[in-house]
Amino acid sequence: MRVMRVRFVVGLALALLAACGSDKTSGVTPPGSTNKTVDIFTVGDTFSPTFATLSVGDTARWNFAGGSDGQGHNVRFTPRVASTPADVNVLKTGTASRVFTTKGTYNYVCDVHPGMNAQIVVQ
Fold it and tell me: What is the predicted pLDDT for the residue at 34?
């Protein structure tokens, strides 16, 4: 009887944990989805990779670190067109994601560190 009760409690706890979920996006593609998430990192005062290719509906996720001066980084798309995702404000740590819904070339820069730029091509 005690073993059954322990199994029930453990099973219930696992079910509750699974139901809680998370608001963080994992790099795993959900079943049935062909969309992917591409991670871009700030390494020192550069974006890495500096060039990424995505498909329509894919997500770019920037992973921020403080930079060489600890001031953080931002993402500002240039030039802006109607299909351009929203810019990302300065972050010292953490992540920010944007979904790309239209084919095109999206250049972006970090205003905090002149010369820090990269490009995403959506096919």
Answer: 84
